Automatic annotation (TrEMBL):
Gene name, Swiss-Prot/TrEMBL: nrdI
Domain of life of the native organism: Bacteria
Domain Flavodoxin-like, first and last residues per copy: 7-155
NCBIfam families: PRK02551.1
Segments traversing the membrane: none
Protein name (database record): Putative NrdI-like protein
A Pfam family: Flavodoxin_NdrI
Length: 155
């Protein structure tokens, strides 16, 4: 019997860009791999619904937009705001060891702060920054990340 493949995405989205990217990436992967199971965990929804954090059973990829408090990202402006629930979810139980890496997103207008939180998570938890994209991401970003997903999960 063919083994059913499952990929898992953990993310947060406050203004909908990351949500859009994860949805379009999922659609793209499903078209290329019919029958693929895609698990998505939106940490904002867990918190909003008062759902307790849990341990992921499947290896997962984290999608993380950047929200920092002011500054320039060099000698200040490296304080994460609004997305810290994702760090708490990753720190929960064995989740960090199941995270294959983080895809950061942001806006290049923020210069040195561009996708800084993804880099900070990589340092803190010891998994790689797999890719980055701006805002909702273009089709090229979807294709690039889909190829990374295919390689990591050997689809
Ligand atoms: C208050 C605020 C602070 C932000 N800070 C940064 C930043 O420091 N670096 C960066 O690359 N993008 C920054 N952004 C851009 C967001 O990361 C970007 O819009 C992202 O696509 C938002 O994702 P979401 O819609 O899924 O929440 C900031 C946006 C806002 C509204």
């Amino acid at each position: 019997m063919e083994k059913k493949m499952k990929v898992s995405f953990v993310y947060i989205s406050l203004s909908g860009n990351t949500e859009s990217f994860v949805r379009r990436l999922s659609d793209y992967l499903l078209e290329a791999h019919p029958g693929l199971e895609i698990e998505t965990v939106h940490v904002k929804d867990l918190v909003k619904e008062g759902h307790p954090f849990f341990e992921m059973t499947n290896p997962f990829i984290t999608f993380l937009p950047t929200y920092l408090e002011g500054g320039n990202g060099v000698d200040n402006g490296d304080v994460e705001i609004l997305t810290t629930d994702v760090a708490d979810f990753i720190a929960y139980g064995n989740n960090a060891s199941k995270c294959l890496g983080v895809v950061g997103s942001g806006n290049r207008n923020f210069n040195n702060q561009y996708c800084l939180t993804a880099k900070q998570y990589s340092q803190r938890f010891g998994f790689p920054v797999l890719a980055d994209f701006e805002m909702r991401g273009m089709l090229g970003d979807i294709k690039k990340v889909a190829a990374i997903v295919e390689e990591l999960y050997q689809l």
